[in-house]
Amino acid sequence: MEELTKVSATVTELRFALDTFYFLISGALVMWMAAGFAMLEAGLVRSKNTTEILTKNITLYAIACVMFLLVGYNIMYVDNPEGGIIPSIAGLIGTQASDADHSLESDFFFQVVFVATAMSIVSGAVAERMKLWAFLAFTVVLTGFIYPLEGYWTWGGGFLSKAGFSDFAGSGIVHMAGAAAALAAVLLLGARKGKYGKNGEVHPIPGANMPLATLGTFILWMGWFGFNGGSQLMVSDAANATAVGKIFLNTNASAAAGAVAALLLNKIVWGKADLTMVLNGALAGLVAITADPLSPTPLAATVIGAIAGILVVASIIAFDKIRIDDPVGAISVHGVVGFFGVMIVPFTNAEASFSAQLFGCAVIFAWVFSASLVVWLLLKKTMGIRVSEEEEYNGVDMSDCGIEAYPEFVR
Predict the structure, then answer these.
(1) CA–CA separation, 27 vs 35, rounded Å?
(2) Of 309, 302, 357, nearest to 329 (Cα)?
(3) Per-residue pLDDT tens over the stretch 107-162
(4) Alpha-carbon distance 41 to 258, whole Å?
(5) Would you say the pTM of this structure is higher than 0.90?
(6) CB-based contacts of 2, cutoff 8 Å, min separation 6
(7) Residue 327 has what DSSP assignment?
(8) What is the mean pLDDT of the chain?
(9) Does the CA dihedral 93-97-103-108 come out positive or negative?
(10) Using the 8-state DSSP alphabet, how is residue 48 labeled?
């Protein structure tokens, strides 16, 4: 009997260690997505704004880590009432709960990289005309307060979770939320100079480095296996290991279908293979499947990704028609397709309901958009959020950072 007890304790410890290790590796993959966002955005902006966009990406990640440790994690997870709206704002627990499947520290690390992902969405949408320090000031608020509150309502066991809202890895909680914050900023910022003509013309502003943008997309694609796969939380038994395998398969299938669908749509409509649309098609497939990468069959995941690839192309064009300037298509990829991803869940998951999904999306968007709009307005009235016309013309690399990314090139 004593031997059986020892064996059982050993197995429990091994499972704890394995699940903790899996959690940490998944978190590291999601952290690597920060590099993907940085490369994607650096490739899609003009060379004169490259250093500044890279500065935003590394500093937003650092600020998100600090703010989530000091404030955000406490708001989102610690000692909150089940089904509530107002968090308890308790202190970060320093001891591991005895019945946990993995260490608290690994849970925190996995959650903090998700916060940074949400903020990364904003940086691309406001690229080439937002002041660096205004952006960083907003980062403090979003990662420390705005995101954690809606995170409590959903993953933290708050009222949206109680209402039946289902979002496995964050199509709405992370991606649509980041896009809502970005949309609030873009509406106040306005378009880049020369983007739109007086008679409604749309003037494309090509990015400086397509190889870099493509590399960023591949990095994001790879990191997404940690984003979705890690959200299973466990891998130490047959059922969970099988689930993780299916999540990887569906995630990859949806991304691939998104890229192919965007490619074919561009060829059919314009006769060209627009690389930027193909890249966004792949990302759209990833965002769409994130709300539930486990329930669909691989064929259904492929269909979801294909629809997302078509949807994102249509959305990017539609936003340009209403003169909402988004240099990287972030609002379309993460916002429009994020909403689609959440709403498609009931088609493959019988436990989800359309009413609960719609309610959750409405609450998340309303909260993040309105709170972000207030913060952006305060920043606009105080320190200003847009660079001067001269700084925009010359590029924000020199005015904000004092360093050019490509000093040997003459603009």
Answers:
(1) 14
(2) 309
(3) 999 999 999 999 999 999 999 999 999 999 999 999 999 999 999 999 999 999 99
(4) 20
(5) yes
(6) none
(7) T
(8) 93
(9) negative
(10) G
Measured distance CA(166)–CA(148) in Å, rounded: 17
Cα–Cα distances in angstroms (integers) from residue 83 to residues 107, 157, 174, in the given order: 21, 6, 20
Asked if 397 and 404 touch (Cβ cutoff 8 Å), the reply is yes
Backbone angles phi, psi at 169, to 5 degrees: -125, 5
Neighbours of 15 (CB within 10 A): 16
Q: Which two tokens stand for residue 171?
A: 């199509």
Q: Quick one: tokens of 166?
A: 């289902």
Residue reference for tokens 């320093």: 94
Q: Mention every residue, 6+ apart, whose C-beta is less than 8 A from residue 161.
A: 83, 153, 154, 155
* Residue 174 Cα distances to 21, 243, 264, 338, angstroms: 23, 22, 29, 9
Count the Cβ atoms, other than its own, within 10 Å of residue 375: 21
Which helix (H) or strand (E) covers residue 229, if one does? Answer: helix 210-229
Using one digit for the tens of pLDDT, what is the confidence trace for 172-228?
A: 999 999 999 999 999 999 999 999 998 889 999 999 999 999 999 999 999 999 999
Rounded to whole angstroms, how far apart are CA atoms 37 and 55? 12
The single residue listed with the structure tokens 């970060």 is 92
Tokens of 130: 């937002």
Rounded CA gap, 302 and 286, in Å? Answer: 11
- Interatomic CA distance for residues 397 and 402, integer angstroms: 6
**d(Cα 28, Cα 61) in Å, to the nearest integer?**
13
- Are the C-beta atoms of residues 287 and 175 closer than 8 Å to each other? yes
Distance CA 153, CA 394 (A): 44
- Identify the residue whose tokens are 């003459």: 410
Q: How far is CA 330 from the centre of its chain?
A: 9
Predicted confidence band at 1 (pLDDT cuts at 50, 70, 90)? Answer: low
Strand partners, 196: 202
DSSP state of 386: B
Please report where in the chains the tokens 């289902």 appear, as a residue: 166
Distance CA 127, CA 334 (A): 16
d(CA 382, CA 384): 6
